[in-house]
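Researcher: Next entry in the queue.
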Amino acid sequence: MSNQYYLVSQLPGFTVSDDKAIPITYEYYYDLCSRFLSKNEMKILDGLSLEPPLEDSKTGSSFVDTWNYKEKSLRLALAQIRALRMKKKFSAGNESIAPDAVQAARTASGMDSPLAAEQYLNQYRLTVIESMRPTDGFSLDAVFSYGLKLRLATRMKKFDEANGLASYKKIYTRILEDK
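Model: Structure for this entry, 179 residues:
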């Protein structure tokens, strides 16, 4: 635990906004974590992702498990809505889907702009991370929360409207050709 104090004190604070640069890279964060966390804790960090695994598996962290559930719920809700629009069958199997994820997916799918929808979904994800953030800022979960927020902020900075629109049209055309 005392190592986490040293680790967290070296992580710069940042906010997720379009006009501010992110003060560190995920690679730097990961390297810093590797100096202070145990092998088991690093194993959990290795599984920290914005794209959780499809199969349910416990990570050893209730924080990461909850994140994985919330993100998986959002992805399943989006897939369900897309399938309905395309008049295709979709089954989430025995998976339960978080109600707030369903609402976020519905809101995003009703937007005219794919970029606006993705920005909305990223804001939803950020809200989920912030709502899960532990009150103890030096806990292991705080380290994981920081990592998720850093990954999300890095992803959000990569968005470019012109490239996104071109990619969207290409994917959409391919989908229509597959019908």
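Model: The chain has eight helices and no strands.
Researcher: Noted, moving on.
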